[in-house]
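Collaboration report, partner site 2.

Our partner group contributed sequences for two proteins of shared interest, and the home lab folded both. The records are reproduced in the order in which they were received, starting with the first partner submission.
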Amino acid sequence: MPSENIPPVSAGRVRWRKFALLIIPAGAVAALLVSLTATGAIAASISVSGTAFEVTAAQFTGQGFEQYGGVVASSDGATHPVAVTALRSGQITDLCQSVSVGPFILVLRAGDNGTPASVSNIVIDADQQSGNASFSNVTIGQDASTLTEDPGHTGQAGGFGEQADSFEITNLRQHTWLTTAGTFTLPGLSLSFSSTGC
């Protein structure tokens, strides 16, 4: 026979104080990890497609430049050495991006009608780059882990790094594996398939 001294169990009730004591610290830790990843203090693991793409531009200007060595990996296990370029903001005139899709080449164009494309907090992983470049207040050969220019990305301790307040690159051509950005505004966007790239 059940004891009459056992209190009834109330189903479906949440103890909000205990819930808050658990969820608030967990939320704070999650927010911290997202923040550290966004600033480059913690590396985000992104597997690249294994197919690089070409980027060209008549002019690329911007503020907040950092660059250091890195490696990207594709899902098949192949690794690719890259120069990681982090920029606070930039404007791109006559942007063209092309990538092979089967027997065709997908071509994206923007910023060619008098209004340049614009980016913020962009990170570019490229293994080839050419053009005519100029930098202001540049530091070359700095330890990659001590870069201080906003946007605040850093590389490995002891690695080669450089940074500058602002930059300008004309006749840019890049062979790129991965690009991430906080914002990427593409005025006059045009997307098409072609037998030739940029």
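Second partner submission, folded after the first:
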Amino acid sequence: MSTSGISTVLTNINDAFSGKTSGIDVASTVSALMQLQERPLTQLQSDQSAVKLQISTLGTIASELSQLQTATNNLKDNFGALSQKTVTSSQPTLVTATAQNSATAGTHTVIVQQLAATSSSYSVPIADPTTLAGTTLTIAYGDPNNPSKTDTITLPNPVKTLQDVADAINSSAGNTGVTASVITDASGQRLTLVSKNSGAAGNLTVRGAVTFNQGVAGKDALLTVDGVPVDSASNTVTGAVTGLTFLATGADPNTTVQIGVTPDTSTAATAVNDFVTAYNAVIQSINAQYTPDSSGDLGPLEADGSLRTLQTQMLELAGYSVSGVGQYVNLQSLGVEMQDDGTLQINTDTLQDTLENHFSDFQTFFQSTQGYGQAIGTMLSQITDATQGTVSVDVAGLTTQNNDLTQQITDFQDRMNTVQQQLTQEYSELNVLLQEYPQQIANINTQLAALNPNSKS
């Protein structure tokens, strides 16, 4: 409470003693006195707010470090961004391909002799579907003379429409290999069956109460891949080359298609950009603690020694050099340059040349067991360790400090509640006395006047 506040309280008490007022305002008097008593509480709360802001700021930096670790892992992971492949085809109307991370860069030759086909059969026109009620349908798959399996389907009795027959086939427990439907043409309605499996193994031979004709014969796709004959039940061919999936879209036995597999430099460049962005976010958050704002104030962590340690660790990370892994020894050598403020900037021309002409060395730099990716991955794991990491240890210490302040504030508030109760009681009693005081003075004056009638009050 200010000096003027104390003066006001004293003046109110003096006015009550002199009879100018009747007593004092106990509530406002106690409130004014409590402001003086509670000054240490304000300081404790201010200290706690500062600690909480430090914890929050460290939380932001911890999140940015986590993003940097994710970006680093994407570069050093053998199945990450640097393992992505781009695939080209010299004749995409005949065959295209997609590549998994395990695919090896190179060129493959493909000839498509025959596309796979899905077998279908259709019945003669059926004028009266009720005649099929209770009959049996036998469907053989594969070679008609030596089928790989056979479905036997008994149709329900009764049936009213041909669609009833199709529905019964589709829902039959004995049907595992065909889909039935009804097609209407100029001759009437026909029951059609389409194999659920493409290729020769799904070829249909149908026998039943009505005659079925083969619509399309089931056959396998026939390709030659790098001179090796390949038979596939589907036009999507996997397993012929490790990590590659071919999609045959047309057949031409006289045309050789070149399938090229190259590193996906675009994805790799994006991964490097992501790493630089994540790294710069951490550095900029650190730098902000030592940069005055518009009021000249520094950041909440400007006096935090752990932040200086983290800053040093980050700069070591950016400038770390390796040897024995090719022509690239550090980030700058492949086009990632450090600026005066500690942030990183990509030299686009240098990085592009690295990706296009020296991708193998670039990949080795990040993914070799002795390379940069492994080294900084280990460093980041130590920095971000949940118990021993630089930020974690700092946050743990500040959290303990915050908890101590919370307890101090609680204890202080409990004491202040007691003090307020005591002051309220004391000043309530004083107020009673002050309210009685003018009457007591009047009584005394009356008594004195009676003792000496000739005197003045």
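Feedback sent to the partner group on the second submission included the following. The CA atoms of residues 420 and 448 lie 41 Å apart. Residues 48-80+266-384 form one domain.
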